[in-house]
C-alpha cells in the first residue's frame, strides 16, 4: 500500500511495489506492465506520478517501452556489479578477481602517435614526443564493462610493448620490467558518451556512463599513462571510505 505520510516519494513506493512483483514472479519477463492510467487509478495518484515510477523502472532496465504496444517486463540478465573503491588503486582485473570473475582484454587499436601539447605536459615529456595510443575494451565473459582510450610512454620504458601484452595484462607487462605502479589520480563525472563508446559498451543513445580522466604514476612518481576511461554504469559502482 502507498503511505502518503512517508518521507519516501510516492513514485519510489510504486516502483518498489512493482519491483517486488517482478522479483517474486507475479510479473514475469514478457508480461505487460499495467498502463500508467491503470497504475494511477490503482494507487490513487496522478498519472504523472505513475509515469515517474515507470520511468524509473525503464532507466533500471527492468521494463521496456515498446512503441504502439505498451510497457513490458524485460528478461532479467545476470547481475554483474563491481564496486571500484575510490580511495585505493585497484585495476578492473583486481576487482573482478576479487569477485571470482575474470576480465578479458580486447585490444581495438594500437599505434605510435605524436602526443598533443596537453598529453606532453601531463606525462612530463618534451613537446612533439612519440607515445603509444591505444583503445581497449574490457569484458567479463561477453559483457562489456569498460572502454578505455590511453596515451602511454614509449621511452624509456615501453618501446617493446606489443598487442599480446595489451590483450593479456598491461600491469603484468610492467611487472615483467621490474616497474611498480604507485597509483593514479582520477577525475570522475557522469556523461552521455559518443557513438564509438556506446557501440562498444552496448549502450542506448540516452544511456549515461561513468567517465574518468586518469593519470597513472610509477613508484617514483613519474606519470606513465593518461587515459579516458568509460565505465558501463549498469555494472559499476564507486565506493569511498572517509574518516572523520
From TrEMBL:
Signal peptide: which range, if any? none
Q: Which domain of life is it from?
A: Bacteria
**One of the record's GO molecular function terms:** DNA-binding transcription factor activity
The HTH gntR-type domain sits at 8-76
SMART domains of this UniProt entry?
Answer: HTH_GNTR, UTRA
Give the UniProt record's GO annotations in the biological process aspect.
Answer: negative regulation of DNA-templated transcription
Keyword terms = DNA-binding, Transcription, Transcription regulation
InterPro entries named among the record's database cross-references = Bact_HTH_transcr_reg, Chorismate_lyase_/UTRA_dom_sf, Tscrpt_reg_HTH_GntR, UTRA, WH-like_DNA-bd_sf, WH_DNA-bd_sf
Gene3D superfamilies recorded: Chorismate lyase-like (3.40.1410.10), Winged helix-like DNA-binding domain superfamily/Winged helix DNA-binding domain (1.10.10.10)
List the protein's name: GntR family transcriptional regulator
Amino acid at each position: 500500500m502507498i503511505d502518503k505520510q512517508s518521507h519516501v516519494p510516492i513514485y519510489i513506493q510504486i516502483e518498489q511495489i512493482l519491483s517486488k512483483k517482478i522479483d517474486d514472479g507475479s510479473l514475469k519477463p514478457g508480461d505487460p506492465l499495467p498502463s500508467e492510467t491503470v497504475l494511477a487509478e490503482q494507487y490513487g495518484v496522478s498519472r504523472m506520478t505513475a509515469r515517474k515510477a515507470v520511468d524509473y523502472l525503464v532507466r533500471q532496465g527492468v521494463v521496456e517501452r515498446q512503441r504502439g504496444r505498451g510497457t513490458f517486463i524485460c528478461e532479467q540478465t545476470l547481475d554483474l556489479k563491481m564496486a571500484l573503491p575510490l580511495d585505493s588503486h585497484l585495476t578492473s582485473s583486481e576487482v573482478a578477481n576479487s569477485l571470482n570473475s575474470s576480465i578479458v582484454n580486447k585490444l581495438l587499436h594500437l599505434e605510435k602517435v605524436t602526443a598533443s601539447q596537453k598529453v606532453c605536459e601531463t606525462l612530463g615529456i618534451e613537446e612533439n614526443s612519440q607515445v603509444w595510443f591505444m583503445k581497449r575494451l574490457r569484458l567479463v565473459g561477453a559483457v562489456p564493462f569498460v572502454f578505455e582510450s590511453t596515451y602511454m610512454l614509449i621511452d624509456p620504458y615501453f618501446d617493446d610493448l606489443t598487442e599480446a601484452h595489451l590483450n593479456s595484462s598491461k600491469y603484468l607487462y610492467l611487472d615483467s620490467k621490474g616497474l611498480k605502479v604507485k597509483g593514479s589520480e582520477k577525475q570522475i563525472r557522469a556523461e552521455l558518451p559518443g557513438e564509438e563508446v556506446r557501440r562498444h559498451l552496448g549502450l542506448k543513445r540516452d544511456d549515461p556512463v561513468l567517465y574518468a580522466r586518469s593519470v597513472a604514476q610509477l613508484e617514483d612518481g613519474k606519470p606513465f599513462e593518461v587515459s579516458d576511461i568509460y565505465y558501463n554504469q549498469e555494472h559499476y559502482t564507486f565506493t569511498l571510505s572517509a574518516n572523520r
